[in-house]
UniProtKB/TrEMBL annotation:
It comes from the Bacteria. Residues 404-431 form a coiled coil. The chain crosses the membrane at residues 6-23, 30-48, 54-73, 85-106, 112-134, 182-204, 216-247, 267-287, 299-320, 340-360, 372-395. This is Monovalent cation:H+ antiporter, CPA1 family. Gene3D superfamilies: 6.10.140.1330. GO terms for cellular component: plasma membrane.
Amino acid sequence: MNPTMGLQLLLVAGGSVAVAAIARRKGWPAPLLLVAAGLLVSPLVPGVPLQPELVLYVFLPPLLYAAAFDSSYLRLRDVKRAVTLLSVGLVLFSTVAVGLLVHLMLPDLNLALAFALGAIIAPPDAVAAVAVGRRLGLPRRALTILIGESLFNDATALTLYRVAIGAAVGGALDLWHGLGEFLFAAGGGVVIGLVVALGLGWLFNRTRDSLVENTLMLLIPFAVYLAAESVHASGVIAVVIVGLYLGNRMHLSGFGTRLVSDSVWKVTAFFLEAIVFALIGLQLVTVIQGITGYEPWKVAGYAAAVLAVTIVSRFVWLFALTSLARLLGRGASQPTPQQTAILGWAGMRGVVSLAAAFAIPPTVPARDRALLLFLTFTTVIGTLLIQGTTFPALIRRLHVSSEQEQYEDRLAEAAAQQAALEAGLAELERLIGEHGELDEIESQVIDQLREKSWRRSLSAWERLGGGTGAGGAETPSALYRRLRRDMLQAERRVFVQLRDERRLDDEVLREVMAQLDFEEAILER
């Protein structure tokens, strides 16, 4: 890498983080603002090429792993039928719909390339939709379906893409060969993911070192993805399985591993997502310059038609499935019509589609390759800007919310805290009985332990009322947290002053600051 390219990437990374920070401060969807900023800046700056290998082998594995690691295996298992029908069935349906449309509009284009375009733009990227949905209180089931779809649909789409590109280059589209390749990729990804997941679970049970475990976790997605792809299996499925397995067993790890892991993957996902969405917008000039030999109005018509079919095909598939489920008497477990409409409008495309388009081999005629890249770019931008900007309004308009779920969550938490309190106090009484008679200091410690358990249980019950007492007054737990935070700030100032006066070493300061920070983190939680 030359210094100029390195400087370009550094500026993209720094600018992306700055734009994402503004979005977080204003409460705006960061992916949409990043894409818009990239589009505005693209004509003013030198081209920043989107390297397919960079996206598929550097950005995609950790983003998939972070999403899987943070997901709920149990919730995904509850919606496995819906996730399968979207991540496999809908991808196949969208690929065929777009491929046939492109073949009708451009009969001179190789049929395999038309289906390759369908596979390229078939998988939605749910990052923007999930971010908006969480902020606006989308029901948990709908969010879980979106997350599950985004975890697995890339595997289906990339396998279809490889089959179609192979047929375009080789000259024949063999459906049976394509089916065999798809089954091998999926099965191989499952096997590799399970083997690696079980091996890592065995290893982590014996390390018990938070620094080592989290360092290994940073390497895991890249290693698993490369291992699967090297034997032509699905790296996407392998990474997702490992992430789900390790995320589901994090309760077996030490507290240090959990605390560090949560921060590491939040920072990693934030940083990488900021870069990839900015890179989408920055491809504007590169994509437009490649179009030659077509009349502008025809190209615009092709782009509008592909975008429309991409959006409509998702609604057709979703409403057909839900209608069929109701006819078969399975409507009770299906999304409501309002939730189905929201799921249909959440089909925003992302950087994986662009990376696949850029990866079309140079043996494909340059004119066709440029057109496919342009149609991919307009579909990605169109879905992000049209669906992404109207998605919040749609959620509000349909009055879909998770208020009841949130209340039930708080109620369940309060009941669990009460049960845990009783178990903890019972264990404390057992230990006291084994110890025998207590002296004054030991009695004070026991009283403090009882008070701490009581306060944590009380806080959970108070949240059922929104964190306020009668007449909007501050609850005892809220008062405790506010006063204790102010006390911690005063304590920090004293420690820093003693360090500045050279009466306390920096190493000691860091240790005591860490203790205060952990206590404040508990208060915030």
